[in-house]
Amino acid sequence: MKNNYKVNGKLTLFFIIVFAYVGVSQIKDEEQIKKLYDTALTDGAGYDWLNYLSNQIGGRLSGSIQAQQAVDYTKAQLDSLGLDKVWLQPVMVPKWVRGTPEFAYFETSPGTTTNVPICAIGGSVATSPNGVKANIVEVQGIEQLAALGKDKIQGKIVFFNKPMDPTQINTFTAYSSCVDQRYAGALEASEYGAVGVIIRSMNLRLDDYPHTGAMSYGNQIVSERIPAAAISTNAAELLSTSLKLNPEINFYFKQNCKQYNDVESYNVIGEIKGTTKPEEVIVVGGHLDSWDLGDGSHDDGAGCVQSMEVLNLFKKTGYKPKRTVRVVLFMNEENGLRGGKKYAEVANAKNEKHIFALESDSGGFSPRGFTFEGSNKGFEKVLEWKSLFKPYLIHYFEQGFSGADIGPLKKEGMLLAGLRPDSQRYFDHHHAENDTFEHVNKRELQLGAASMASLIYLVDKYGF
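Predicted structure:
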C-alpha cells in the first residue's frame, strides 16, 4: 500500500508540474499575441506600404512597368526591416496589355443605341479594328450552349448571364459556381460558331463597374479565338430585359488588347533565420501583381503588406523565431501562377523543408479566421490554439482551400492555410476599377496582419 501511495503521489506531482507548465506557457502565448496585436494597431507599417503601392504605383499587371516598380519598392522596404536575407527570385511571366479603353453598345433599332460599360477579359484577343457587331443570344451558363446548338449561335455574340448566387453566405462559393463562364466561355462558345462573348461580371452587387479576370483558350489556335469582354451587372440586367422585349438586338464592342512574349519578373523574398531549427521553413505571402483597372488594394496589395507586416511585428516585438520565417510576394498569380510555381520549383530543387505556409488573398477586410488544407494532424494541433484567438473575434478555423500561390508547395503531411476575412464586400471590388486604397480600412488591415503573425508565432513555437 505504501508503494502505491508513493507511485500515486509521484504521478500526482507529475501532472501538477505538467499542468503548471501548460498554464504558464499559455499565459506567455497570450502575452505575446497581445503584444503582436497591440503593435500592429499602434505601430504597424502595412497601411503606409499599401498607400504607396496603390497611390504611387497603381495597378500592377504582370509584366508591366508598374509590376517592376512594385518589386523594387517592396524589396527596399524589406531591406529596411533588418531581415537576415532579402532577395529577388527571377520568373518568366506573361505580358498582356489592355490597350485603349473598350467601347460597347447595343442597338434596339437602326440608329437607336445604348452605351454599356465593358472591359476585356484578361488574356482575350482583340476585336478587329472596326470592332464586332452581331445579333446577341443570352445563356445562363456554359451548359446551355449545347441546348441552343450551332444553328442558334453561329455568327452571333453569346451573352453569358449566370449571376453569382446571393443566397450563398460564403461569397467565394457563389463565385466558384459561375466563374467558369468567364474562364472558358469564349473557348466553349467558339465551338458553336460564336464571333464573340460578353460575360456578366462576377459581382453580387448591381453597379456600373465591369470586372475583369483570367480566361483561357486552351490549346485553340490563334485564328479560331474570339474576343471576350465583361459587362457590368447593371448593364447585364438592362441587356437581358431588352432582349426579352426584342430578341433581334445587335451588340457592338471594340477592344484593342494584345498578348506579347513572356518577360522576366521576380518574386520578392525576405526571411528571418531560425535560431534553433533554421532548416524548417515557414512561409507567409500574397501576390504582388494585380489587374490594371484599379490599383489592386484588396487584391492583393493587402495580402502583400500583411505578410510583410508579420516579419515587421516579430522584429518590433523582439520575437526571435526558432524556425526560419520567410515572406514571399509572388508574381503573376492573376493570369498564370508563375510565381507560385517557380517558388515551389526552386524550393524542391534545394530540398528545403517547408513545414507550413499561410497566404492572404481574400482582401483586407475584418479577419474572421483561417481555413486549413493538408495534414489532419496539423489541423488538430491548430485547433488547440483556437481559444487564444477568441479575444480578437477570430473564431473560424475550418478545413478548406488555403491559397493559389502556396498550393504548389503542398506535400504529404504539410499544412497550408489561408486568412479568411469577412467576404461580403470582397466581390464589390474584385478585379474592378473600384479596387482602390480608399476602400481599405486601416484597422481591419492591421487586425488581419496581427492574426497572421499570431498564427505564425504559434506554429513556429510548437511546430507539428
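Summary: The chain has two domains: 34-95+261-462, 99-256.
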